[in-house]
Specification:
The chain has about 400 residues and is mainly α. About 70% of the residues lie in helices and about 0% in strands. It is built from 19 helices and no strands. The radius of gyration is 23 Å and the shape is globular. It starts with a helix and ends in a 10-residue tail after the last helix.
Length: about 400
């Protein structure tokens, strides 16, 4: 997992979003199906590793491709809507595991039906933004004209796309060799990158840590898991509403703050005092819902912060830290030897710190997606929650 992000970014730069997605999807189908016939455990682990490599890369590239095709409020809605799948298929996984208890059958069920997705790639176009950023202007114009035609818009015959040309054009042409390093070569982009990394890390750490800690609080694990998944549907709807009304930064601050306060409060609630430990259960679910919601915003935020030339590696390297979080989560859960609610308190502090760091991020809801490195550096420069608070409202004067 540590190295696949850079490789996926290389494939995207070399072959484009569409071909990379197709290759990763076919890899998932073939290796996933073969894994169901594994003769021993080591060969099964190898197959699962390759499947994880392919599916994580496929999901990242697909999300980048989608975000590069939409704008306005649809970028917000479609950016968060895929998280409805997490709730639905999370519940369905439990149903499938109950109906098909044998792991070979489950593996086949999770792999073979993906064949239907292959047909979509004969219809899906390449990302026009990626084509334009790579100098393939005519192909990008053709796709944009087709999109306009489907939307009932007529573009004039004189319409032309202009490739992004800035003083960083030299680094842009060397993107395949610099790639990941470009995220740290400019101060504003470096700051946004590091904060994004911590946002992804903290969100995944809290969510999976709460999942692991669910069966240590005197509550039923299946009940907690099922309620948490069901609550994802209204919570994602709330996220979309808040994103449209308040923007990215305030939404993240609200949910990191809610999760941090809720989880920290669990340390002050006595155990074995309330029936079914319902106050801790409620606060635990609030923390988990907050983590789910912040994850949805992290996807959108990262896609808007990183420029086209490094968007895939930016989003991919950010989500890499979402894998580091779950690796550390079991060790934090083990802190319950010092008290059953101590892990929840640690997760609460992690969330509160993330909420503070978000205040130094720019608001991106009304800004165009950056294309070049300098676009990514300049957009949001000097903008933070604190700078927006310091801005004085203009004094209205009355003419006499």
């Amino acid at each position: 997992m540590i190295f696949y992000r850079a490789e996926t970014d290389y494939w995207c730069k070399r072959f484009g979003r569409r071909k990379t997605m197709l290759g990763l999807l076919i890899s998932t189908i073939i290796v996933g199906t073969l894994s169901s016939f594994s003769p021993n455990y080591p060969s099964f682990l190898v197959g699962i590793f390759i499947c994880g490599y392919s599916t994580l890369g496929y999901g990242t590239v697909m999300y980048v491709w989608m975000m590069e095709h939409v704008g306005g409020k649809y970028k917000t809605i479609l950016g968060a809507a895929p998280h409805y799948n997490f709730g639905f298929w999370g519940l369905m996984t439990g149903v499938f595991a109950y109906l098909l208890p044998h792991w070979r059958h489950l593996q086949l069920l999770f792999s073979v039906p993906l064949i239907v997705l292959v047909g979509a790639f004969f219809y899906l176009p390449e990302s026009a933004r990626w084509l334009l950023a790579n100098g393939r202007t005519e192909e990008a114009e053709k796709i944009v004209r087709e999109i306009a035609r489907v939307n009932g818009k007529d573009l004039p015959s004189t319409f032309r796309l202009q490739p992004p040309v800035t003083k960083d054009s030299g680094t842009k042409t060397r993107g395949s060799s610099l790639g990941f390093l470009q995220l740290f070569m400019w101060p504003n982009l470096r700051k946004k990158t590091l904060i994004c990394y911590y946002m992804w890390f903290s969100t995944a750490l809290i969510y999976y840590g709460l999942t692991l800690n669910s069966n240590t609080l005197g509550t039923d694990l299946f009940t907690t898991f099922s309620i948490g998944k069901l609550l994802e549907f209204p919570s994602i709807t709330l996220v979309i509403f808040l994103l449209l009304k308040t923007g990215r930064r305030i939404t993240l601050m609200v949910f990191y703050g809610l999760g941090g306060v809720s989880l920290t409060l669990t340390m002050f609630i006595p155990l074995n005092y309330f029936a079914y430990e319902w106050p801790i259960l409620v606060l635990n679910l609030l923390g988990r819902i907050s983590a789910i919601n912040t994850l949805a915003v992290c996807y959108i935020y990262s896609a808007e912060v990183f420029p086209t030339v490094v968007r895939n590696v930016g989003l991919g390297s950010s989500s890499f830290w979402a894998r580091v979080g779950p690796m550390i989560a079991p060790f934090i859960v083990d802190l319950r030897v010092y008290g059953d609610t101590v892990p929840l308190g640690v997760f609460g502090v992690v969330a509160l710190l993330a909420g503070v760091l978000v205040t130094f991020m720019p608001e991106t809801s009304n800004t165009p997606l950056p294309d070049t490195i300098m676009d990514g550096e300049n957009i949001g420069s000097g903008d933070s929650f604190w700078s927006s608070c310091r801005k004085k409202k203009p004094i209205k004067t009355t003419e006499i």
